[in-house]
Amino acid sequence: MKILNDWKIITLLCLTMGFAPFLPEPHLFGKIKWIIGGANGMQLIDWFDTIMHGFPFILLIRIVILKLTKAT
User: Fold this and answer.
1) What are the TM regions of this chain, as residue ranges (predicted)?
2) I want to staple 46 with a disulfide (CB 3.0 to 4.6 A). Which of 14, 34, 41, 42 is the partner?
3) If DSSP codes are grouped into helix, strand and coil, which group holds residue 56?
């Protein structure tokens, strides 16, 4: 799908869905801290939520890797 390779749309997704809610702290940052702290008490919905908020960043990293490997 072309949309999965469009870096402009993926960047917009990172800035909106990836960092939402913006205050007091992006949701993804809180989940990552929770996981680093041992993920005590995390339920399946918390893991799904982490993947949902982190997926745009995974796509962005994928695009960067594809661009770098194609350049060499």
Assistant:
1) 7-24, 44-65
2) 42
3) helix
CA distance linking residue 8 with residue 5, whole number of Å? 9
- The pair of three-digit structure tokens given for residue 24, joined into one six-digit string: 């007091």
Contacts of residue 47, Cβ cutoff 8 Å, sequence gap at least 6: none
Q: pLDDT tens across 32-69, in order?
A: 999 999 889 889 999 998 998 999 999 999 999 988 88
User: Rounded to whole angstroms, how far apart are CA atoms 18 and 71?
Assistant: 27
Residue that has been written with the tokens 């060499």 in this structure: 72
Q: Determine the pLDDT at residue 35.
A: 92
> Distance between CA 25 and CA 51 in Å, rounded?
17
Q: Check residue 65 and give its pLDDT.
A: 92
Task: Count Cβ atoms within 10 A of the Cβ of residue 37 and give its class: 0-12 exposed, 13-18 middle, 19 or more buried.
Answer: exposed
